[in-house]
Amino acid sequence: MWKTVIKQNLNIDVEVMWQVSKENFGQKIDLAIASNDLPDAMIVNQVQLNEMVKAGEIEDLTKVYASSASPEMKKIIDSTNGLAREQVTFEGKMMAVPSVTAEDFSMLWIRQDWLDRLGLKPPKTVDELEAIAKAFVEQDPDENGKRDTIGLASSTGLFHDFNNSAFAFDLTPIFSAYGAFPGYWLEKDGKPVYGSLLPETRNALVRLRDMYAKGLLDPDLGIRKEPEETVINGQAGMFFQGFFAGYWPLPSAWLNDPKANWQAYALPLDANGAYHVKVDNPSSSFLVVRKGYAHPEAIIKINNLYLRDEFKYGTSFMLSRNFFAPADEARYESKAVQEILAGTKTPADFKDKSEYKLLENTVSTIKQTKLKPYDQLGISYWDQHNENFMRDEVTVTMGRVTTANPKLPAGDTYENNAYTRLVKESFNAQIKDQFEANGEDYSRQVSLAIASGELPDMMRVDSKDELKELVDNDLIEDMTEVYKQYATDNIKQIYDSYDGRALDNATIDGRLMGLPATSLDSAPTMVWVRQDWLDVLGIKLDADGDGAIKLEDVEKTAEEFLKKDPGQTGKPVGIPFVNTLNTTDYNGSAYTMLGVASTKGAFPQYWMNGEDGSIVYGSTTAETKQMLGVMADWFKRGIIDPQFGTRTFDDITALYTNGQSGIAFGPWHIPDWGLSSVKQMDKHAKFTAYTLEDEDGKVNVAHANPSGQFIVVRKGYEHPELAIKIINLFYDKLANDKDVATSMPEAAKYLESGVDGSTRPFNIEVNSATSLLDDYSDVVRGIKGEIGLDQVRTTESKNNIGSIQTYLKDQDTDDITAWSKYHSRMNGVGLIDKLTQEGKFNWMTPAFSGTTPSMKQTWANLTKMEQESFIKIITGAEPLDYFETFVSNWKKQGGDQVIQEIEAETKTQK
């Protein structure tokens, strides 16, 4: 139709160069701009306009607009007080014709009949609005005998901003009542600041959070896809919307309840009795003409025709049409709607008013407008005394601890993933990795950084010794005051749950020099046995059902696995152990002999209190010798992997993955990252967790050092508070957000799919001392239906409940995450909970967990001597009595000196 009208009126032939769906329109324009293969005219957004001007692809319309634009078009564009012209003017030239959208604002729409029924008046303040919402919720204003009304209907679009005029069901007026203007750029002290970051916005959010907690906002806020349904079905009696509420949704609401008396008010007012309305962006699209097109005036004339005759011919099939709405038309329509609602006029009174054509609800999607002078929408300014302000984008370099299989989605990396993007979104901080490494390689990178003094802005160090070295060389920031000012209450409570021990470990000379990871008690080392193999062979372990078995049980099971090869590989292998043999960290006890040692009451590598009060090194005790005797016997009988001492960690994991071995020593969480590969290869694989008990039926375990890893900040880095904020974000906000799927959807998907925690900026854990069993309790109760998901404390536990339920429905599921979470939580942590409840643990508290001066020179050699001596004894290269030679050499070559230093230090601490 419009092609014919244009031809008849203007003698212009219109040819369509291309047409695409609305969803693909923006992409098509971007491709046209990039290739400079442009139609003679088209509509673009602000970003595209900026690019085309810079590339010299479009005509200067200054003279053409002056000579060809109709008076009506000029009047509309000029009605914006220069805002519309400013957006298309570059170096004094008008490079496009701007659209103009009518000014509007969110007003309070309220059921006057409900107010009358309850004897209430329209609210003037937020307090009064809250009181009315409470009355609507509690006093059954619709008289249906149910308490099912909603105080204030609301949607996920909490506020409208400069680029988006009044939303439907937004809460902008409540923000305005607090003098808050989220989404707007404001001037403060001569500088632009982003309204969303100001304290006034925070105050408004606190009030809205309180109203939500009281049940006065829609309880499905953020979930309900169509909030208008609460108005249409008569459930809600208040909502905020522009004047167009008279077109939608109220006509539908009146169909259901013709007696509903809806009134509109410019409320609530602020403390000074004022109602704030901010000017919206009048322009969201721009008509451009290709550089070199011979008749740019034709495009202007076509839009003159649209403006004159759209009421006659409609808006369908318009070509390169820009939207123009006079400001006085909006005011007229707003007045008309209110008069109709008040009953002073009827719709018939406004027919045939050709001067004011019916406005259509225009594009409601978020525009990508960039406005001068602030063409960087991420910009804001920093006030170091006010954490609500942000700064210009900052870069933070990091040393990152990686893992071999982080389970990242395709395309994501340690440097660019959902977690690092969350940091960018939250703090405008871009993470750049100075180095990435795993295990010993990471330790070497840290050592090189310390030796050279070229530290990343933030990194993890893995010992108090490294922390001291950094302090001694004045290489890191003092975090004392930063921690006090920026750490959230929850983070402080987590550290306090260790009775001060965690922060004490990071404190040197009374100053907090690092942010400690926490290490809660996660003992014992477990024996993970292929349950599907036990079933096939008819082997029954743990007859008394207490979760603890004897060394003899492990021996017999291993021999059966070797003899009958249930993995059917033809190459069964005994129990593999790493050549480092021992650890003082139960979380890192995979493939170690810590569990075997516990049966003899041995604690190799631990510093212990002797019976006479002296310091004893656990690797030199008679109990450790007994442990080595067991291991040597096992090696001789083939119960231990014959290649013990030569296999790498990954080699050992491969033995389980390939089905060659079916007994693994490790922590409760080894199914999450180690044994999960077994499930990938064999969908029927199942493990059961046991632990080893001594001859008295006790499980000997040691308390964990509450913190052995520390996040440090390079001396001189401008934003040390960012380290605290990152910890707040990941170990408080993300961990405790009850609706993380809405607030942090990308991170929620990572948690749900089991992406490894090492992909977070800091590869540490910050958990309360009781969090492991607290979370387990939530998971068990959630699975049983004793509590709802809204009562589960952490997002991780919610995801674990879903995963475990998936596994319970189908134990042969291909869902690796479901398999892993069931095994680690229900088997692993479930065993810890059972042993705790039954009092099976016999706890040893280490006497010391730090380093001493002489260790810097001797400890590497002493550790090497220990490992080599133990391997020789186990493999039979030396007899068991060689242990005495090892002890003697250990003492002579520095061990006695270390003991003296520890005794001196522990006496000082007492």
Describe this structure in words.
The protein is α+β, with helices and mostly antiparallel strands. It has four domains: 2-101 and 282-325, 3-Layer(aba) Sandwich (D-Maltodextrin-Binding Protein, domain 2), CATH 3.40.190; 107-265, D-Maltodextrin-Binding Protein, domain 2 (3-Layer(aba) Sandwich); 394-517 and 706-769, Periplasmic binding protein-like II (D-Maltodextrin-Binding Protein, domain 2, 3-Layer(aba) Sandwich), CATH 3.40.190; 526-702 and 838-908, D-Maltodextrin-Binding Protein, domain 2, CATH 3.40.190.10. 42% of the residues lie in helices and 11% in strands. It is built from 35 helices and 25 strands. The strands form ten sheets. The chain has a four-stranded mixed beta sheet with strand order 18-22-17-21. The chain has a three-stranded antiparallel beta sheet with strand order 1-10-4. Strand 6 and strand 7 form a beta hairpin. The radius of gyration is 35 Å and the shape is elongated. The termini are far apart.
Concise description?
The protein is of the alpha+beta class and 910 residues long. The protein is built from 35 helices and 25 strands.
Shape: elongated
The name of the CATH topology of the largest domain is D-Maltodextrin-Binding Protein, domain 2
How many domains? The number is: 4
Q: Under the CATH scheme, which class of the largest domain?
A: Alpha Beta
Strand order of the largest sheet: 18-22-17-21
Question: Strand content of the residues, in percent?
Answer: 5-15%
Task: Give the number of DSSP strands.
Answer: 25
List the total number of helices: 35
What integer is the average pLDDT?
85
Question: Could you say which structural class the secondary elements and strand pairing correspond to?
Answer: alpha+beta
How many strands, what sense, and barrel or not for the largest sheet?
4 strands, mixed
Distance between the termini: 93 Å
CATH superfamily of the largest domain: Periplasmic binding protein-like II
Radius of gyration over C-alpha positions, nearest whole angstrom: 35 Å
For the record, the CATH architecture of the largest domain stands as: 3-Layer(aba) Sandwich
Note poorly predicted spans: 311-335, 350-391
Helix share, percent: 40-55%
